[in-house]
Amino acid sequence: MKHVVRLLDKSAISICLIAALLTGALGLVGARTIALSMARADVDHYANTLLDRAELIAREINSALAEANRLQGDACGSDDLEHLRKIAFTARYIKDVGRLVDKKLACSSFLGVVTPPFEIRPPDLSTADGHKIWVNTPLRLAEGVTALVVEAGSANAVVDPSAFLDLAYQPFRYAIAMVDPDKRGVVRSWGRRLVDDSVLIARTDKSVDTGIDLIRVDCSKDYFICATAALNRSEAIARQSKFVSGFGALGLLLGGFLSSIGFLLRTSPKPLSTRLREALRSNQLTLVFQPIVDLRSGRMVSAEALIRWSDREGNAIPPDTFISAAESDGTAGEITAYVIRHVTRTAGPMLRDYPEMTITVNIVAADLTDPNFYVVLEQALDASGIIRRQIGLELTERSTARQDIAISAIARLRQLGHPVYLDDFGTGYSSLAHLQGLNLDVIKLDRAFTKSVGTDSVKVSIVPQILEMANALDLRVVVEGIETQAQYAYFASTNPPCYGQGWIISRPLSFDKLVSFKAEH
User: Fold this and answer.
1) Strand, helix or coil for residue 71
2) More confident call, 5 vs 331
């Protein structure tokens, strides 16, 4: 009898387990179906948002080119250049406006007069309404940066390479394409190929499920533009992981799933973001400081705090790598807080001894809208007794892509007393209107311009204009990447004088060595 009972107990357990597994499986299937339906709606909305931005840019391009083709005086004369600069400087998404003479670029709002004028290669696409389009065109003023260029009549316009940066939304992918259905031509100005060209040439709004990706194509009714948004199906499920897990919580399936995941996590290398969080908690990251000096007097006026990370195995992880990973998973603010706390704690005594001294800290776009960032900043400074103006905050041009956010945040930081710097100036091809709107204290001239000193590079010709522009806006200038005596001498001779940093002045130093450097400079 006991043997029969044990058999019945085992059978009952088996049936319960099977029922639990089946119920859990059905729950997961249902949850996945609902999650995918929600994801399709998100993809559709994202594509529509992208197309709205693309049409806004197209309207601005058409308006700017129409205005530029109303020639003021002689082509590339002083009146014409002033006219072109006014167009570029008041535009939101256009960074340069050029004048064509005999099909050659003779001048532009940013380059001034181009001597000699240079030939323009055949366009990537010519539209029926007379526009010529070039994509991924290398910019002569920003090394390694490419942009969309549109020509009509005797003028062309360079579009901001970061025009869609504020709409980049992981894990979604996107592409903006110029389409000429008559000539069956397609060129992509932003993003990578997500659908076959034939789908775009048809210029019909369409949703596609490839079995791997959920894709939505939206095409403009007024312009030769299509926006494509895509989301991987597995990523769509992952975005609703809590929802899916809730539906799949029945039976032992979830337990088995979690056990398998736990096993995999124990046997697989930890993701970079996980290792980074552990390094932050255990204070594995270190700071070094690169001095910034008044190039005319050689006096040290500030230093930039730079974060470094070597893992437990002694491998150096490049800052660009782990900061990019932190931005992707939303933990970049933890790095900012870590740096602020360590800077105020470590450099506090020196800053109190030298009240004119400034330490700058790099921040990211997410910090501008993060309430915790402002709390950490205030608490760290209150605890250290450092004057607010002694902690400068550095933003990249990418971080200021959302001007509606950046302008108010910068105003708030300056009102608190912090000087605000625009780092790597020139890599985003900033316009005067962009700088005027941001109301900064300092621009840091990108090293691409520094390297051009002593060469025949076209960048040299624009450096005096940048310095004049900065002076007119009452902006101080820090020159990055000074590595030769010729570069140092060039920027030391400017009026007003520049500040500078680079290896010829000093490599990044530990804090103790920074104190010694300050004592000598």
Assistant:
1) coil
2) 331
Number of H helices, E strands in the chain: 16, 21
Secondary structure (3-state) at 139: coil
Strand partners, 230: 173, 215
Q: How many CA atoms lie within 13 A of 237 on its CB side?
A: 15
The whole model's pTM is what?
Answer: 0.61
Bridge partners, residue 138, by sequence: 146
At 38-91, the pLDDT tens digits run 788 888 888 898 999 999 999 999 999 999 999 989 999 999 999 998 888 888
Q: What order do you get walking across the sheet with 173-180 strand by strand?
A: 185-191, 173-180, 225-232, 213-219, 206-209
Structure token digits, residue 26: 């059905």
**What are the phi and psi torsion angles at 103 (to 5°)?**
65, 20
Structure-block tokens of residue 116: 């000699």
Which sign, positive or negative, has the C-alpha torsion 254, 257, 259, 262?
negative
Provide the token pair at 440.
């900064």
**161 cis-preceded (ω within 30 degrees of 0):** no
Mean pLDDT of 379-397: 91
Beta bridge partner(s), residue 218: 227
